[in-house]
Amino acid sequence: MNNDTQTIFSEFSDPHRRSLIDRICVAVGNHRIPRVKALGLWFADIKALEVLVGHERNPHMLRYMLVDFSQYNLPRIWASDVQASRSGQPRVLETRPDMGARGERSAAADISSRRPERGDRGRSGSPAQASTAARLRSEPRIPVPQASGRRKRILGDPTEESIRVTVTDREEARCVLTRRGGPSLEVAHIIPNRINRTTRDEHDGNSVWNFLRTFWSEEKVDAWEQALMPGGVLVSTERVCNLITLDLTAQDQWDRGLIAFRPISVNEEETEMRIAFHWLPFRSATIARNDRMPPAAVRDMGPGTPPSRSPGRFNYFFDMETLEVISSGHVFTVRTNDKEKQPLPSMELLELRWHLSRIAAMQGGADEDDDSGDDSDGGSFSVPSGSRSPVKRECML
User: Fold this and answer.
1) From what superkingdom does this record's organism come (predicted)?
2) Mode of pairing for the β-strands spanning 185-189 and 33-34
């Protein structure tokens, strides 16, 4: 099989799913549902929908689970699309030796006072404008609570460098999607490193796990939780299984929510993983992310036709070995020669990001809170030409 049998909208064609959502929406009554949760219904596990249907005789419980919600940026934060604004988090200083006096960068505690200019709103402008604006910002937004003992990222950290050398060696210093070699390679995070070393309690406070458990089975969410927090307390993103090698453009498009990767399978020896590439639609700038939908609109949601060869704006990916255009559904393989020292990317983490990337892409992007545009997860590393040793990508001014 050379192409994925699923599309980014396959769930919408399932009649059983539609019938369950119909029953849930009828039970909710006239209460409007946040768009992020409406999309959660369409991408949810059938098991989770059946649990929700089980509460149809208790509309108060359903309204508690589906109507009351304020974390509209949650999919964007965890899908590494953009760093959410108005986080209200403490300042976090990061010293960059190569930036001199400008090396002290901070996330303002009251970032809500900063109103973006027209050309500074990321997705609302052209891709070129968004990219330029993102790299000119000096105050990256921190969307999640910061652990008090969180370790600062240090340029040249030998532990982090060795992890990235392991990843690039696993991928033979080539992009897993395009098969492009250096120098424009990045070791990208599946789940963004900006939530690294945050705690279970912090995410409980942000209703992250409640959101996930509403739409996906207990078994699945438990597996995601274990993959994210192997020690049971702190999120750990700095591991080989959470990293994958992409060329700079692919990593940038992934962070912007323009592409998604669906994990398909791993062989019995755990030495090969098959992953499908999919284009995502451009986020609508006319829909507010905090939009609430009447139940009738949730039941009638139609996603349209998924992008195939390109989502538009002359965006294409090419296979560097065949020089053919890479279309949605293209399946590529990640291999390892040592599953212990060079484990494959995590199926669980890829699946989590697959779901949240699709929600973020369809959620909208023009609510008043949207100070989007800072598109990087802050943890990608470039691989210079002629070297297997990754170094932190410098700011492009």
Assistant:
1) Eukaryota
2) unpaired
Q: Locate tokens 């369409």: which residue? A: 42
The CA-to-CA distance between both ends of the chain, in Å, stands at: 44
Band of pLDDT at residue 16, cut at 50, 70 and 90:
very high
DSSP string, 143-190: -SPPPTTPPPP-TT-HHHHHHHHHHHHHTTTS-TTT---SSSEEEEES
- C-alpha 347/C-alpha 241 separation (Å) is 9
DSSP helix, strand, coil percent of the chain (3-state; round to 5): 35, 10, 50
Which residues are paired to 278 by β-bridges?
260
Instruction: In whole angstroms, give the CA distance from residue 14 to residue 248.
Output: 36
Which tokens go with 86? 């108005």
- What CA–CA distance (Å, rounded) separates 150 from 147? 5
Which amino acid does the sequence have at 124? S
The whole-number pLDDT of residue 185 equals 92
pLDDT above 70: residue 336: yes
pTM above 0.90, yes or no: no
| Bond from prior residue into 183 cis (ω within 30 degrees of 0) | yes
Residues facing residue 187 across a β-bridge:
245, 381
Per-residue pLDDT of 238-297, as tens digits, reads 999 999 999 999 999 998 889 999 999 999 999 999 999 999 988 777 788 788 999 999
Mean pLDDT (the chain) is 75
In this structure, the number of other CB atoms found within 10 A of the CB of residue 202 comes to: 16
DSSP 8-state code for residue 199:
B
CB environment 117-141: b (16+ within 10 A), e (fewer): eeebbbbbbebebbbbbbeebeebb
